[in-house]
## 1
Amino acid sequence: LDSLRSMFTPPTILNAEGHRMVPHKLYYDIASADEAFHALSGLAEGETEADLLTGGEVEQGKVKKIRFPWLGGTDEARKRVGGPVLLGTMDIKAGKLVVEVNSAERAAVIKGIIDERLGDKAVYRTTIVEPIESQINEMWQARTDAGGAAAGPGVRDKFEWPISPNVPPELQAILEERGREHWKSWFDIPLPALDNKSPREAASDEEGLELLESLLRSFENNNEKRSAGDPFAPNVAELRRQLGMDS
């Protein structure tokens, strides 16, 4: 029951520092793109201004447009990811600064930093909050309505992966782990397609094997239609091996 509950319950998404993941975009009016860049470039820990400027637009020695990362994080978070954590991004262009972060805590921190480093040269306008749970809930509901990933065909009629072209790495990792958990428990879940037998039970008799073979073939056909990177795509060859059907 715990396995089934975890399969159909949307996860609580946390970032590397343990904050609830809620994307924020902070908007500022700025006096100078060049001044804003030089004031904030130190937030890209481990990167020099020269490195950052290779991805920007510079005219007559002045920065006109640039986008660069905010890198850092707690010691614990650094150990977890093996280096500086991507805390957000800075997007600077003519008269505008847009900062993207993935938690309310990071939004509060960067707002304080900008106030300190730019003062009245940056005028805060607004913050747009984009709860990521709505996307996750939609995905989980689509899987539930279609009978879960075990149902095979039909899921993709309601849900297309990826959720968005900018899925955060932390979210991607969580979804991949949920996919692995699902297929690990799949062997012992009674399925309507197998006359309410679990795959492990179905593999033990001739009639069950026929139904199981049909289900696995449907998985293979469905995999051909899946988008690359779908974390819930079954590894059919591994399922066969685990069930003793790879001979």
## 2
Amino acid sequence: MEKARPEQWVVIIPRLPSEPSRYRVALWRELRRAGAVQLGQGTWALPDTAGTAGEIDKISGLVAQSDGEVLVLAAHGWSVTDTAMIRARFDETRRAEWTEFVSECDKALAELRREIATQKFTLAELDEEEQNVDRLRRWHRELSVRDQFGAADATDMQARLDDCAAELTRFTELVYAAVGLT
């Protein structure tokens, strides 16, 4: 059996009471937000990076609030195949997140273009569209941090966000002109 590459992972095995379910939901959300991937029932993995300790502290705090327990292990794959499997699952999860991001960018662009075509130039609509693009910016930052191994083309993802921002700028100028703010 070929020895594993030195890629290090943190394996998280939380145990929480079944009720109330809000603790399980909060933990699941925090694990997902941190970029953890599920390896099996109740077993999660994160790449061991500089920011991982802070994420583990948050996860441990949530588990402690529920009177549960968490086992955190430093690990690497036993074989190259094992390491590749964990990495593939991590990259697959990141690619799925980026695919969803691109879909949301496409929706935002379509919405902005629809508002321009129908000349819906109101400050309320502008506020709504600004919030949507701001949400995309936050999401892009979060995904960029989680995508430790570059599962997606960062340049392409930034270009998608830039397209949204440019269309928002165009919409903003049209709204300002329509309401007499220019």
